[in-house]
Design goal:
Blueprint lengths: L10 E5 L27 H13 L4 E5 L9 H9 L6 E6 L4 H10 L4 E5 L5 H8 L4 H14 L3 E5 L10 H4 L2 H4 L3 E5 L15 H11 L4 E3 L9 E4 L7 E4 L12 E4 L4 E3 L8 E2 L1 H4 L5 H17 L19 H4 L2
Parallel strand pairs: 1-2, 1-10, 2-3, 3-4, 4-5, 5-6, 6-9
Antiparallel strand pairs: 7-8, 8-9, 10-11, 11-12
Helix pairs in contact: 1-2, 1-10, 2-3, 3-5
The chain binds S-adenosylmethionine (SAM) and iron/sulfur cluster.
């Protein structure tokens, strides 16, 4: 579907849980109240929403969380969405801890690619950031996904007081393998408000000082707003998702569904359309499908022209990132 600013909206991010097996300090530190399971969408309900979304032109889905792989049988949902005629791609974003274990079922379900979040290769920094000592499991997950032959991207958030220099080691993933490494600027959502972002431009200049022949990489790499560069001869690229300075809203192609059924037109505003009452209405399936389609259309129509991360007082989203899914 085309929105009121002429953008084609063909991508939906679906958060399937607010639970997580890490405690990243900028996303879900200790002692966060969990959403009761009865308020979390079932896979059947997510399937109904996805079918209505596909009927409006959504073609690509990203499963997220919390940590999507802590929810039982996430592969069953991947398969369910994949089977909807019109779906072109189902991918996943994960912290990688359970990836190696879950990969066989995910591949059998048709998973088309995986984004793995990893902020450092230093075990002590990893523990400071995530609260857990599980770096090796993440590395095993990355290796398993690469060996399986699906597209792999690494997503990194740098924080000035912990891992500001972690880019130096992390970009090496892109050297010998076609793995893209992307730097996401810390966004002022939830606990992220407390941390100063390390800006993409700054990282890019530091990389350029090590690799002066760094060049733009104009190829399309996926669904998102990343801008890419590459070191000549390297197999993968280095991307920057610069939410704060690099306003990419002109090309925004997405809507987001939270684990409780709230459809978000834009990450930075609290406004949402609640699909739960429609889903749990005993009306017959055809009537529900029509109501869902209307509601999704409404959300796409309500997409604002741009986010407001550069003006903190205008950010109205009060939910935490772990509820939204990034
Ligand atoms: N658990 C999965 C993972 O870590 O990939 C999926 C959910 S997580 C919320 C998705 C992405 O959001 C991760 O790459 C994480 O680093 C990022 N993230 C969380 N809070 C953020 C913030 N305030 N600003 C920018 N990115 C954030
Ligand atoms: Fe969990 Fe991902 Fe949030 Fe870290 S970023 S706490 S892994 S949901």
């Amino acid at each position: 579907m085309i929105d009121q600013y002429g953008r084609t909206i063909d991508y939906m991010r679906i958060s399937i849980t607010d639970r997580c097996n890490l405690r990243c300090r900028y996303c879900m530190p200790e002692d966060i109240e969990k959403i009761p399971m009865k308020d979390i969408l079932t896979y059947e309900e997510i399937g109904e929403i996805s079918r209505a979304a596909v009927s409006l032109g959504i073609r690509k889905f990203k499963i997220t969380g919390g940590e999507p792989l802590v929810r039982k049988d996430a592969a069953a949902l991947v398969e369910k969405i994949h089977k909807i005629p019109g779906t072109e791609q189902v991918t996943l974003t994960t912290n990688g801890i359970l990836l190696k274990k879950c990969l066989p079922e995910l591949l059998a379900a048709g998973l088309d690619g995986v984004n793995i979040s990893l902020d450092t290769l230093d075990a002590a920094q990893f523990e400071t950031i995530t609260g857990k000592n599980d770096l090796d499991q993440v590395l095993e997950g990355i290796e398993a996904a690469f060996q399986a032959g699906i597209p792999v991207k690494i997503n990194t958030v740098l924080q000035r007081d912990v891992n500001a220099d972690a880019w130096r080691q992390l970009i090496q993933f892109a050297k010998d393998r076609p793995i893209d490494v992307r730097f996401i600027e810390m966004m002022p959502i939830g606990f992220g408000r407390k941390f100063e972002p390390v800006y993409g431009e700054e990282i890019r200049e530091k990389i350029r000082s090590l690799y002066p022949d760094l060049e733009e990489d104009p190829r399309v790499h996926g669904n998102g707003p990343a801008v890419y560069v590459r070191v000549p001869g390297w197999k993968g690229s280095i991307g920057f998702i610069s939410a704060i300075h690099g306003k990419f809203c002109r090309d925004c192609n997405r809507i987001r569904l939270t684990s409780t059924g709230k459809l978000k037109p834009c990450l930075c505003y609290g406004e949402n359309i609640d699909l739960l009452p429609l889903l749990r209405n005993p009306a017959d399936k055809t009537a529900r499908a029509a109501a869902l389609k209307n509601a999704i259309e409404d959300a796409i129509r309500k997409k604002p022209e741009a986010h407001c991360f550069d003006l903190l007082s205008k950010v109205t989203e009060q939910k935490k990132m772990v509820e939204i899914g990034g």
